[in-house]
Design goal:
The complex is a heterodimer of chains A (181) and B (400).
Chain A: H1 2-20, E1 24-28, E2 35-38, H2 43-52, E3 60-69, H3 74-77, E4 85-93, E5 100-107, E6 120-122, H4 131-142, E7 145-147, E8 175-176, E9 179-180
Parallel strand pairs in A: 2-5, 6-7
Antiparallel strand pairs in A: 1-2, 3-4, 4-5, 8-9
Chain B: H1 7-12, E1 19-23, E2 35-41, E3 44-51, H2 59-63, H3 68-76, H4 83-98, H5 104-132, H6 137-157, E4 166-167, E5 170-171, H7 179-202, H8 205-211, H9 219-224, H10 230-234, H11 241-244, H12 247-250, H13 286-313, E6 331-339, E7 342-350, E8 358-362, H14 364-369, H15 372-375, E9 379-380, H16 383-391, H17 395-399
Antiparallel strand pairs in B: 1-2, 2-3, 3-9, 4-5, 6-7, 7-8
Helix pairs in contact in B: 3-4, 4-5, 5-6, 5-13, 5-16, 6-7, 7-13, 13-16
């Protein structure tokens, strides 16, 4: 069972690299939940391919999460083996084929390294409508701009909230409109 | 005489204006602090836009600052009507990251308690749905039975709402002596009452008129919008994570016999025992979503019965819950489980320390609620509560 799952993921990875070449930037097929890393500019094409391909049929987008990789503790930061970055993680699955796959897109923490400029990634709303709310939430809490999203507003926090709370360097405001937070 | 002076003509030349109506966040039929902005023309809703976030409690951020064991009480407060099932989802996710396998006995305890939690959650869904549609009686019936489940849970873990009973690595304590008999007693009391529920709602003509062919959700939209649980199965999609999920989610159900409640080839499993589908009902409408839940109650009763039998013979102990200082292996996992309201998922990332680097929650109600704009397009204002109630959302889980 385990062996067949491994080869299945390797097969998908091979097909994706054949088709999208350098757009596929990495993978970890031995992980518990195997993932494939993509460049942001091929994301929409790859997703459409994954959804429509007769063998894969990833018709469900389970979750979009944003993960901030920034070690704020300087002692630990010296030991980490990665540069600060942000990952957007897409969990896909197929109702018909009953398999799943994880996609990752790596982004800089700020666009062009200018603080306040949100990093950008293309939106996949056109492929899975459920991405609409998930992307709004990631934008709201993590500060990632989804280019092409039909209405990228904050969803959980008020529209005039300052900052992106799930970023590791977020500082809690002392008050909101005179209310102690 | 000009036309404007003629009152008869004026009456037929009324200019209509679009009106914005705020439904909630304190509206009783929005199931918590949900606000829906309705753009209406008279009685017709053009667009319904849910506004959420009133119950946001930073659960994900808190998860980055506590060890998995410490975060268990926060999962109780996600879907607070099915705390046990939320605990279970988190426990399984942490076990997947740690590569832990629990004993057979723990598995049976979990099935028992999770299925009781499912019954309790569906009873609330049924009762409040009756309230939404203007019928008070089913609510009292549902809560009478739910109360008995809460008593059972109280015997197991001391709490009635926020249990923190299922922990990563096992359960808090074994079932107390005499509990299984109490549970069997409850099941024999519950079974005959279900016919009453069906008489009160399922086959009630007013109820059918309010729900049949209202808010029809196609299977394609249901999948595209990530709907899950009874909402997905109500649209005729044969998918249930208890059967189709990952090994971590299905392992404890191995050896149990049950059928996924979905309309297949024109009939439901156990169709013959309960009121027939009324001719007005269309697959994917509010009535079908409701009916799927009602049949799942019967199925869960059966699963609990099987669980009792298997628990009595099961070897093993009730597990050793992970310690608060337990280091997590470096890596990331994602695991979804079938909670009463749909597929509940946890995305857990660890950097190798005892505290997760990131915890992300996939909420079933969040996805189920996102189809409200589709379902409420061009419906009547009175149908909006009917649609929202049929989705059975809990705001604790949506806002997190």
């Amino acid at each position: 069972m385990w062996q067949t799952i491994m080869t299945q993921h390797q097969d998908w990875f091979r097909r994706l690299t054949e088709r999208f070449g350098r757009g596929i930037t990495g993978s970890s097929l031995e992980a518990v939940d195997p993932w494939i890393e993509l460049a942001p500019d091929v994301l929409v094409e790859v997703c459409r391919f994954l959804r429509d391909d007769a063998e894969m049929r990833f018709n469900v987008l389970n979750l979009v999460s944003g993960v901030d990789y920034l070690q704020i503790d300087p002692k630990k930061a010296a030991k980490t083996d990665w540069e600060p970055h942000i990952e957007v993680v897409y969990h896909l699955s197929s109702i018909k084929k009953r398999h799943s796959l994880t996609l990752k897109v790596v982004l800089p923490r700020w666009k062009d390294d200018q603080e306040g400029q949100l990093p950008e990634v293309p939106s996949v709303v056109a492929i899975w409508p459920t991405a609409n709310w998930h992307e709004r939430e990631v934008y709201d809490l993590m500060g990632i701009r989804f280019v092409g999203h039909p209405g990228l507003h904050r969803i959980l926090l008020p529209e005039d909230w300052d900052g992106y709370p799930l970023r590791k360097d977020y500082e809690m405001p002392s008050e909101y409109h005179g209310i102690r937070a | 005489m000009t036309t404007a002076d003629d009152s008869r003509i004026l009456e037929f030349d009324v200019r209509t204006e679009e009106m914005l109506i705020n439904m909630g966040p304190q509206h009783p039929s929005t199931h918590g602090v949900l606000r829906v902005v309705l753009r209406t023309d008279g009685e017709i809703v053009f667009r319904a836009e849910p506004q959420i976030g009133y119950l946001h409690r930073c659960a994900e951020k808190i998860g980055e600052n506590l060890s998995p064991r410490q975060w268990v009480p926060y999962t109780d407060r996600l879907d607070y009507l099915a705390g046990m099932n939320m605990n279970l989802g988190w426990a399984l996710a942490v076990e997947k990251l740690l590569g832990l396998e629990v004993s057979e006995k723990v598995g049976h305890i979990r099935v028992l308690v999770a299925e009781l939690g499912r019954i309790a959650s569906h009873l609330v869904a049924m009762g409040t749905y009756g309230l939404d549609l203007g019928s008070f009686t089913p609510f009292l019936y549902a809560f009478r039975e739910r109360e008995k489940i809460l008593n059972l849970f109280e015997d197991v873990c001391g709490a009635r709402l926020t249990y923190s009973y299922m922990l990563p690595g096992g359960v808090m304590a074994d079932l107390p002596p005499g509990w299984l008999e109490k549970c069997e007693q409850f099941l024999t009391e519950l079974e005959p009452v279900i016919a009453d529920y069906h008489a009160l709602l399922t086959s009630n003509q007013i109820f059918i008129k309010r729900t049949a062919a209202i808010g029809v959700l196609s299977a394609e939209d249901a999948i595209g919008y990530g709907c899950s649980g009874p909402v997905l199965r109500g649209s005729g999609v044969d998918f249930d994570l208890r059967r189709d999920g990952e090994l971590y989610c299905t392992r404890m159900y191995q050896g149990y016999t049950y059928q996924v409640i979905v309309r297949k080839d024109g009939h439901y499993p156990k169709d013959h025992d309960y009121p027939p589908v009324p001719p007005e009902a269309v697959i994917g409408d509010c009535w079908h979503r409701f009916y799927v839940r009602m049949l799942e109650v019967v199925q869960s009763i059966d699963l609990v019965r099987q669980g009792i039998e298997r628990y009595r013979q099961a070897p093993g102990d009730c597990g050793v819950p992970v310690k608060m200082t337990q280091r997590l292996p470096k890596g990331e996992i994602y695991l979804e489980t079938e909670a009463p309201k749909g597929q509940m998922g946890f995305h857990l990332i660890s950097d190798g320390s005892a505290i997760p680097w990131r915890v992300r929650i996939r909420s079933s109600s969040f996805c189920n609620l996102s189809i409200v704009p589709i379902l409420c397009q061009n419906c009547l204002i009175a149908d909006v509560p009917a649609v929202i109630g049929s989705l059975d959302v809990v705001l604790g889980e949506i806002d997190r």
